[in-house]
Amino acid sequence: MSPALLEAEALTKHFPVRRGILGRPAGLVRAVDSVSFTIDAGKTLGLVGESGCGKTTTSRMILNVEAPTSGAIRFDGAPLSGLDRDGRRRYRRGMQAVFQDPYASLDPRMRVGSIVGEPLIINERPSASALRRRVLELLDLVGLPERAAELFPHEFSGGQRQRIAIARALALSPKLVVLDEPVSALDVSIRAQILNLLRDLQRRLGVAYLFIAHDLAAVAHMSHTIAVMYLGKIVELGAAADVALHPKHPYTQALFSAALPLERQQRREEIILSGEIPSPLDPPPGCRFHTRCPQVMERCRRDEPPLAPESGRLVACHLYPAPAR
Amino acid sequence: MSPPVIDVRELKTHIVTRWGTIKAVDGVSFTVAEGETLGLVGESGSGKSMTCLSILRLVPRPAARIVGGQVLLDGDDLLTQSERQMQRIRGKRVAMILQDPMSSLNPVFSIGMQVREPLVSYHGLSGKALARRAVELLAAVGISSPAARLRAYPHQLSGGMRQRVVGAMAISAPPRLLIADEPTTSLDLTIQAQYLRLLKDLQERHRLAMIFVTHNLGIVAKMCDRVAVMYAGRIVEAGPVEMIFGAPRHPYTRALLESVPRLGAQTEWLTAIEGQPPDLAALPPGCAFAPRCAHAMERCRAEEPSEFSLGAGHTSRCWLDRPA
């Protein structure tokens, strides 16, 4: 088997919390705690979880915006930690990002042509005619007309702006694009357009995605693999259909039961969790989910369950393996 | 059947801008009975929030103005009340929960002060009775150790907790009509599930008529008895929730339902709605959805369809549904 495009191994990020004017350390936020996953070339990993679970911090470490406290990232076979300045620059060229709000991520004073062409100018210094050709190619790729290049972002609707952001992300032919809530800010009727576009681009360009979203049905639709995070840990990781339709971890089960089906008849058993998400400043001992888990056992309060194989995926829960009878 | 709590008739709210008049709400009619939930769905700019603000007469003045129609709350037309009378109605007979709890809560006052305020002004409570009722209300929305929480400030609570406080204030009267405008959009999924159950409980306990505004069709399927789908300031389809989800008629409703990814559906491509949401300042003549509609006919571009009844309270504003 060929090595994965991206490998994250025991990725950890702790943020120190400081108090008072002397900035005395007052604790650690364990935003991401020993998270491992891989993304294959041309495939999509969906990352789901509620706010504060560490999805965005994970993506920021992948994008090399945030340095991991510990752990390793390998991209295209090369470890990120050993790279020099030039190497890091090449690394960053290989991956790009599209963010939630296309109103914030596009400079209102630049024409669309310059926005899309900027990564090319910085990295490749193409001739004016080559640049123009490439920009028009990119606009065409995301379904925008040629004349869009002369216009400003405010002249576009939200969905079209997100197309511009996608064109910019693709300018340097990246191998991986981080999609952080790419459709949440868009109108419902526009979301399907953008999801279809992303899927079409993956097929045509072979680009891999790290897809972060809270719309679980959208994640299940877009992803090949899904990782579910809770308080900085991956609790379940496996093929999208397995995780979405037959979740094993009690948290995944609750999460997907909260994703409401459209058909009334199809209403599944609903699991409503009690309590709130604990603070990552002081995560519960043992299994981090035990304070809200409907199936909590004595052992969960004490021992942290490892992420172990179960029914063709990885699950971190003491319920598995089910005791032999 | 009991008379409706709220009966909105041909409501029209226009916004005057430099570029012309925008018909944000253009002849909207619906009723909601006691204990019933009406889901108001549509994209941003479709007029659903403006409809709710018009009921409470809270449209942003002077730009926006209610130019026609009636809003009958238990028979009283809210559009003809004086501002003084409206102040007695808001919060007492009609309450509203907004998307962002921090736009309803004042950051510099304690939760207790804010929860007590309507109790003092509407019910004239004071002293021990007031303190007891405030604790009761927080307990009713599932807040643990309510007495301690009353001393907290909004920033000390989580988003879900804050929205519960807003819920507690909304039911303090209790009102006849509760308007919930995207109340769970800012909440996490598992917290959203808790809050939706709470709203259902509160509604059943107080027999509230509820208008639930959302763009999340899954929530509509779960929470609502009837649905009204809005597009460009008009209700294009309305009916019992089973009809809207099981046998939608209007092309916009159908396209909307098809465009949403579903868990378990192994479809490769989503059915996207082409084009962009309408520009309300430059609506086409005829049906506003015609430019994006797969079934648009000559007539749709010339003449606006009227509302056709399909029986059992199901209506559609589409020429395709004109009785033969």
Report on this model:
The complex is a heterodimer of chains A (325) and B (324). Chain A is of the alpha/beta class. In chain A, 30% of the residues lie in helices and 23% in strands. Chain A contains 9 helices and 12 strands. In chain A, the strands form 2 sheets. Chain A has an 8-stranded mixed sheet, sandwiched between helices. A 4-stranded antiparallel sheet of chain A has the order 2-1-4-5. In chain A, helix 3 (112-124) runs parallel beside helix 5. Chain A is globular and about 70 Å long. Chain B has 2 domains: 6-93 and 173-321, P-loop containing nucleotide triphosphate hydrolases (Rossmann fold, 3-Layer(aba) Sandwich), CATH 3.40.50.300; 102-172, no CATH class. In chain B, the strands form 2 sheets. In chain B, strands 6-7-8-3-9-10-12-11 form an 8-stranded mixed sheet, sandwiched between helices. Chain B has a 4-stranded antiparallel sheet with strand order 2-1-4-5. The chains are: A alpha/beta (325), B alpha/beta (324). The interface between A and B is large, with 45 and 45 residues.
Indicate the structural class of chain B: alpha/beta
Sketch the topology of chain A as an H/E string, one letter per element.
EEEHEEHEHHHEHEHEEHHEE
Q: Specify which chain pair forms the largest interface.
A: A-B, 45 and 45 residues
Low-confidence stretches of chain B: none
- Supply Rg of chain B: 21 Å
CATH overall fold name of the largest domain in chain B: Rossmann fold
What is the molecular shape of chain A? globular
The CATH level-2 architecture of the largest domain in chain B is identified as: 3-Layer(aba) Sandwich
Largest sheet of chain B: 8 strands, mixed
Average pLDDT, all residues of chain B: 91
Distance between the termini of chain B: 31 Å
Write the topology of this structure.
The complex is a heterodimer of chains A (325) and B (324).
Chain A: E1 6-19, E2 24-39, E3 44-48, H1 55-62, E4 70-75, E5 78-79, H2 85-93, E6 95-98, H3 112-124, H4 128-141, H5 158-170, E7 176-180, H6 188-205, E8 208-212, H7 216-222, E9 225-230, E10 233-239, H8 240-245, H9 250-258, E11 308-310, E12 313-315
Parallel strand pairs in A: 3-8, 3-9, 6-7, 7-8
Antiparallel strand pairs in A: 1-2, 1-4, 4-5, 9-10, 10-12, 11-12
Helix pairs in contact in A: 3-4, 3-5, 4-5, 5-6
Chain B: E1 6-17, E2 20-32, E3 37-41, H1 48-55, E4 64-73, E5 76-77, H2 83-89, E6 94-97, H3 111-123, H4 127-140, H5 146-149, H6 159-170, E7 177-181, H7 189-206, E8 209-214, H8 217-223, E9 226-231, E10 234-240, H9 241-246, H10 251-259, H11 298-302, E11 308-309, E12 315-316
Parallel strand pairs in B: 3-8, 3-9, 6-7, 7-8
Antiparallel strand pairs in B: 1-2, 1-4, 4-5, 9-10, 10-12, 11-12
Helix pairs in contact in B: 3-4, 3-6, 6-7
